[in-house]
Amino acid sequence: MRLSGHTTPFAVLGHPIGHSLSPVMHNASIESLGMDAIYLAFDVEPSLLMETLPAMRNLGFEGVNLTVPLKEVAYNGIDKLDDSARILGAVNTVQFLDDNTMVGHNTDGKGFLLSLKEDLDCTPEGLKVFMLGSGGAGRAVALTCAMNGASSVMVTDIDDDRSAKLASEINELAPGVTTAAVSSDAQKDASLEADLIVQASPVGMNPSDTPLLHADAFRNGQMLFDLVYMYPETGIMKLASDAGAKTANGLGMLMHQGAYAFKIWTGKDADTAVMRQALENEVYKND
Questions:
Q1: Is 71 in the active site?
Q2: Which of 71, 128, 165, 285 is catalytic?
Q3: For the chain, the helix, strand and coil percentages under 3-state DSSP, each to the nearest 5
């Protein structure tokens, strides 16, 4: 990659950010497309986000992605929200317009649906879904499942108030979908009843993390989708797989949400084949 005084910068912001593979996939695509651009990563504390974004706009950044724990901060701080962000209640993509305004988008839902179809060969339609985690990405996935025909979406979180709030929002957005907040002592039963379990908490980002569910919470014929993407198989994926469930990590979702963000910023299609190969090379290099 050759840089110049005309190089267009993009970036992902988070806190922490060292785990992010967004620069790996975006820079591979940028190089494949022959663009004079670069994609960077910066650690930004939540309290500084709404000062940082205008500064990045003024420095010439063409677009920014946001990850944990900045998605909800941006949702509450950015004045102009795309329908995707407004409905899902979180911003993972910031677009800088020529008039110096910022627009918040959410590409997580679209990325999840595309990855679910590719990796587990299904859609949410008719499925009983159990969500582990109801933060920014988890909330987006839960609402996306509800809006795309899931028969039920049960949610649990370390923060009981947050899971109860999400269940209430699902009920308002998709009143025909059965939903409820699940307490910690009822997680096993909720998991066993589910067709699709979505692990959307940060647990698993560290390989020494203890999975939120035990082996007896899974059964044959289920599917588990773990949004964690840094490892080929997380601890909870192994437990589910050993019980006979089909599993997928979050690599495909990361790629598809990133490709959609790139389209929003540039109007161009990202090279998703190159993006996926770059991600797989990074994740599976020690496998």
A1: yes
A2: 71
A3: 45, 20, 40
